[in-house]
């Protein structure tokens, strides 16, 4: 019986390592690059009674949960728009850019960066179509390739500094 317990513990240790590695990798962002990505969002417990009112026209003193971006991040978002890339959201575009920067910082070769980012871009393109009310079809390979190239180039030039 002890042999079975040891392999179960070894299996859990391996699983823990697999879960911890991506988390450790994702925390490699510079504080400058990630500034504003959710730092202004505050949440309350679901049934909390509070005197704080949600942001809106009648409550000018309440904090907004709108995304706050740095000038560097805004430059990146503006460059994506100028290149014709329409992300499903600013947060999604910043996340993809962050992945590019993390891969670059880790010294990943261009093909590895592409292989990791392309599925994220494809999903984002699909999400952008859904938010426009269009039927969620898979974007064409040409559209995905063009957007992936733009994301990688623009993130490398404007966000990964």
From TrEMBL:
* Region (Disordered) location: 37-65, 128-148
Its domain of life? Bacteria
In terms of PROSITE patterns, this protein maps to:
PROKAR_LIPOPROTEIN
Domain DUF732, residue spans: 73-160
Q: Which Pfam families match?
A: DUF732
Q: What name does the UniProt record give this protein?
A: DUF732 domain-containing protein
Organism of provenance: Mycolicibacterium parafortuitum
